[in-house]
Predict the 3D structure of the following.
Amino acid sequence: MKSGLEDVIAAETKLSDVDGAAGRLIIRGVSLDDLVATSRFEDVAALLLDGLFDEHIDATSIRTQLGAARVALFSHVEAAADATLLALPPVDAVRALLARIEDGEDFASAIRLMAAPAVFLPAVLRLQKGDAPIKPDASLSQSADILRMLTGRVPTAEQTAGLDAYLVTISDHGLNASTFASRVIASTHAGLTSSVLAAISALKGPLHGGAPGPVLDMLDGVGKPENAREWLSHALDHGERLMGFGHRIYRVRDPRADALKTALKPIFASGQADAGRIALAEAIEAAALALLKERKPDRPLETNVEYYTALLLDALGFPRNAFTGVFAIGRTVGWIAHAREQTLDGRLIRPQSRYVGPLPKAA
């Protein structure tokens, strides 16, 4: 028995490969570095979903269909956004709205599920602030429309590129907890909506890693670059975890961290965010890596995806309590791809358990 299914191979996939020793992520034969440099969300969606449905799939058709689906789904928010829904944390409100989407296994179902969180999250966030939700614009890309629905302004090219980089970066990442949950549900042939609901339920757990908001709490606590080493030392002395460092799989630097750091720079360089924020983050990162190497020389604790995710999403205008919801927007396409792969090629997932409880007393 392996606790947490550590090192147990539970599926064969053509979708993504995580090489923790080398710090490499491959999605459908393309390295993450190349993918982020050349792709928008619609491109990676076409890459992941190709061959999993009857339709011919390309980025242009996905963009068109996502735009139409966003407009159609807006009515779901208007119909369901009552006080009970709006009292929920944003990711829970999004999950509740997703549950209203009919289960299906076709490409139209996949499109609706990819479009849904992109519409639901900005609308919920605005309603929770007392603002009216903004109707989607089908002519825009997924990333541009998300930011427009969030802020009420058409985003700059740098902002759109930044969100695209994030959504591409987190689109798929091997057999993590939420993706495994998606595949387990798919193995029962329950439908794509059920798979996505299971996945987002797993994602919201704090151990999954979809909530990088505490990174910003750390930055706020440090305040100034010159305070970094003292603040971090105090945290380690009291047994606290440094948020944004270490990963269960990666034994070197998480390749997604560098991709997001690169995506951040044009936003800060163009004056669209506080340049001092990234300088503070870099100082904290350098101090944290040095301290972790000193204190835990036998444990490889490098920068992970959460660190620069927090800075990027903050710069784009998302509140901290919405970060898990933004993660779900990007990862839904991966959940769908794995669900379809499991449905087409897999069988019912039914592992065994080992009973360690009491036995009946002998007569």
